């Protein structure tokens, strides 16, 4: 299908794509194709008549299309595409067009998602730079912004339990995409610590310390990490790395290991 050749036609296709994405069972491939056509149309409109760049309706449409692409990226799990769309939305959220256009209803949800992306990628400096461009009132009261701010505080405290609890407090389901990526990183860090602190753990304790909701999730994770699972004993045994084997011998060394384990529990 050819890209629309006028603002009216582009607007109609945008509305169709928006309705498709908001449908109860969206057809992502179809919406993705429509978004591609919309982006081509924006370029064509700009090239055919340079005056369109001064048209407020053109920029409202362009912003809407970029936001649609960003939302589609989240729903299809494409973090790289989401990052590109947010970069293109910078002029509309923080630049020259911020005060020239009416505020977008999805601006703060998308900004909040981008803050979560930065935390997931451990881009702490970028995270704080982004916060500096957000109004103080929004930082303190907007739920889409407050959530990632509190999450970053929990990460800095090393309170992974608070991070896990924040998953159930997301202001919109779209936040779960980055929250799950972040929890995956945290689980791997905790797993590395647990392997050095314990020789084995009961199923329930392992499930708790790794923040899993079900036993199936724990068993899949154990398989990925090549841990030994004993259904009869309901226990997981961790492998002992050869060069660290001496850590598990001797009363004094065992006391140190148990103390480390208790410290891990305090942090978690």
Please describe what this structure looks like:
The chain has a 3-stranded antiparallel sheet with strand order 1-3-2. Helices cover 66% and strands 3% of the residues. The chain is elongated, with a radius of gyration of 24 Å. The protein contains 13 helices and 3 strands, in the order H-H-H-H-H-H-H-H-H-H-E-H-H-E-E-H. The termini are far apart. It is mainly alpha-helical and 268 residues long. A hairpin with a 4-residue loop joins strand 2 and strand 3. Residues 244-250 have low confidence and may be disordered.
Question: Which SSEs are present, and which pair or pack?
Answer:
Elements (H helix, E strand, L loop, with lengths): L6 H15 L6 H21 L7 H20 L3 H15 L13 H14 L3 H8 L4 H6 L1 H15 L2 H8 L8 H22 L2 E3 H7 L5 H10 L3 E3 L4 E3 L13 H17 L1
Antiparallel strand pairs: 1-3, 2-3
In summary, what is this structure?
With 268 residues, this protein is mainly α.
